[in-house]
Amino acid sequence: MDSWDDFVVLPPTRTFTDELELPTGVRLRHVGGRHAPDSTVVLVPDSAVMLLGDCFYPPPAHLRQDGDGPDLALVRRLLGDRYHWYVSSHADPMTLDEARAAVEG
Fold it and tell me: What is the pLDDT of residue 68?
């Protein structure tokens, strides 16, 4: 983007509580989590990619308590053979095997 002058944040026109499939086949799934109660993952079946965002991250710094860390149980529930790539907001993409190793190690 050359300029932010025309940038506008539009309010949502559709809401969902569990899962929403877009006309392209991409699915949005609400997963919640301690980082943000409205965390949503994006499932791209034709590419076998799951975009995790920050869903498994600890609570935001101002809400964090001693011992808070990543929610690896949430990640374990999301891992499955249908998706071969997992992409979080602040790390390199991982294959399914790499993601499994990361949450088990």
Answer: 94
